[in-house]
Amino acid sequence: MTLKPILIHPDPRLKKVADPVVEISDVIRKQADDMLETMYDAPGIGLAAPQIGLLNRVIVMDCVKEEDATPEPMVLINPEITWSSDALNVHEEGCLSIPDQFAEVERPAEVKVRWLGLDGKTLEETFDGLWATCVQHEIDHLNGKLFIDYLKPLRRQMITRKMQKLKRERARGD
Fold first, then answer.
1. Which CATH number is 41's domain given?
2. Which residue among 37, 67, 110, 138 is the active-site one?
3. What pTM was computed for the model?
């Protein structure tokens, strides 16, 4: 497994729509392993392929946060939301591509998602709570959308400016 650098907003690759995975190959399985390793190392609860510069429709997530609990890593290939609840939920979201920035985002409280597993079989599950927020956030990444796109323009611009400054500082090696 290889840790991958996570792209920081603004980066044009984070705004692109990712392509569907046509074949679940060893390359895709290795990518999923690398993404899980990168997500846990960050540490985060979700990661989408575009965040590591790969424009394909693969997301990983694990919303188990308790230290002594068993991890529940999930790999979702070509995930799609097939149903959303009318009930909404507000959750404070952050993003590995927008470090140290958090904002409340309103999304459906429950979603049903269909995807391919690493074995090529179609899976479907209804998510709620943090899992529902996370899966929607990661699927947004596959569609070139970031959580800050839900915010008012001024707040979004402030966060974008902070990220531009962070990228400049990292480039200089501060």
1. 3.90.45.10
2. 138
3. 0.95
